[in-house]
Amino acid sequence: MSTAAVDPGLLSDKSRSVGGNGCCAHKNGPGYATPIEAMSGPRESLIYVTCVYNGTGKQKPDYLATVDLDPNSPTYSEVIHRLPMPYVNDELHHSGWNTCSSCHGDPSAVRRFLVLSSLLSSRIYVIDTEKNPRAPQLHKVVEPADIEQKTGLAFPHTSHCLASGEIMVSCLGDKDGNAAGNGFLLLDSEFNVKGRWEKPGHSPAFGYDFWYQPRHKTMISSSWGAPCAFRGGFNLQHVSDGLYGRHLNVYSWPDGELKQTLDLGNTGLLPLETRFLHDPSKDTGFVGSALSSNMVRFFKTSEGSWDHEVVISVQPLKVKNWILPEMPGLITDFLISLDDRYLYFVNWLHGDVRQYNIEDPKKPVLSGQVWVGGLIQKGSAVIAEAEDGTELQFEVPAIQGKRLRGGPQMIQLSLDGKRLYVTNSLFSAWDQQFYPEIVEKGSHMLQINVDTEKGGLTVNPDFFVDFGNEPDGPSLAHEMRYPGGDCTSDIWI
């Protein structure tokens, strides 16, 4: 199904080069020449948010919301447009652009199309944001049958543009939800299914997120779990049964040969979001291990192989009135500021957002922390036990008279690093299990002010988007993207 034919001229491959470091031969392509230059880009005025009805009991299609971020606008902090998808039961999840700063030197490349992956239906939607950025339109649908027939892949997750003009999408399993069927889908510049990226026989045990660093000729991917396990909710027994990952997979770039597998062990259970430092010369990155609640640094050794170490540990809390005697923080998302100075992550269950100074990546220093939800906030049934044995609950302030629901989940940082946006839905089946209130009453979106000089985080009381008040009923808000790119979608070469 396609709502419009693709104009080949919009994504011409004439001045792109697959070899070398990419397509940079001229000037004034999409994005910015360097991450530091991007920090001087214009302040964000719009953000696109994937919103989910799947799993909420409403037979409504998921949609892409446009939120006004301009503080001088009369519709500031409001949803100003909703683009429903043509089907139900998709579970819109993560997204990426058809091109980014990796093609900054190519004037023929245009950051026009947002690629939306549907985690459960396996559809991929292509959204045109150029005609009217405030009201984007559906451009094309890549059907799951086409993907499965040509590649055997399903359950698409992360998408990144390549300097060749292609789009690469990690897929977490086969159509039956078996992890053994996962790999990397390639779409051409017109969003046709081209094939698989990795070499035959070089698929990892599990799939999830990925990031490439061309100067080091390396791509590293992480491993959530088998779709047949996670799609029905989280079962701790499935970890023991080997249905969840604990590995990082190191590939040669761009040829797709699996060179090394890093076993993170019990300190790296469920490694999710994966980021290299933005400086393309650096050979260091991080991955957040959700269940172990550790931030793991990966790096190149003097011998040219890759290794890892735990650099931040969030200790589990002893709790009462919960399903387990101890509660992990559950690091579900993190990002790095464009100057590679600060790292931010969330603890979805504990309820805090953290800022670390990583000027020395080997020794992150906590520089900011704010509580914006969680299962242990004051007024909840769950009670933690402090080290001295006293009972503990965290103070979570109401915003605009609204008690904060759920826990912080997806985050996005402004280009200048001064504003952090936060949503609170992880995945509808897991939301229902751990935070049924947000399934019933809807998600919300917050803005956190960042002190980029001394470090520190404070909630902006003037910004609150309540997805509980949507026209078709409460929805679950997940990932966020700016029209001009951001620190989790742009890769420099």
Automatic annotation (TrEMBL):
A matching Pfam family: SBP56
Iron-sulfur recorded as keyword: no
Keywords annotated in UniProt: Selenium
Gene Ontology MF terms in the entry: selenium binding
SUPFAM superfamilies: 3-carboxy-cis,cis-mucoante lactonizing enzyme (SSF75011)
Family: Belongs to the selenium-binding protein family.
Protein name as annotated: Selenium-binding protein 1
Record organism: Acorus calamus
